[in-house]
């Protein structure tokens, strides 16, 4: 059984496409109680830009619960927010493409995806990350951006909170 799960993750990673970031769930809060199945919630996830070392992004997004949510049949809303920051010295691993998709996540069984794409503003030496949702036929105008000015990085590490 263990090998079956590992094989499944390998296939899933391959199918997501090369160069897309994988997210890590940071936390969540419940927004609506459901008697059957999980509650509706807002989820916070983090991912690192796959082509730019030193840039991390955090996403908040809604996630439907209930029986349909538990079975993966619910269509989540297009609401999402993004915050990206320089977290270390920036190093480019590869050449960048304008509007390149750096993160993608399914929002319904088949038709809807949430995507994060990256742009570069050369006049301001700034990276711009845009999160939006789209469907096969029609997307949503809901979106959010975050900008990361590319700055020199001091060598002294930042202090961490106690605990």
- Which outline best applies? globular
- Flag low-confidence runs: 1-18
**β-strand number:** 8
Structural class assignment: mainly beta
As laid out across the biggest beta sheet, the strand order is 1-2-3-4
Q: What would you say this structure looks like, in words?
A:
The chain has 163 residues and is mainly beta. The chain has one domain. It has helices at residues 2-16, 66-70; strands at residues 24-32, 40-48, 52-63, 80-92, 100-106, 112-121, 126-135, 143-149. A hairpin with a 7-residue loop joins strand 1 and strand 2 (40-48). The longest helix has 15 residues, at 2-16. The radius of gyration is 18 Å and the shape is globular. The relative contact order is 0.15. The model is unreliable at 1-18 (pLDDT under 50).
Quick tags:
single chain; 163 residues; mainly beta; 4-stranded antiparallel sheet; 2 helices; 12% helix; disordered N terminus
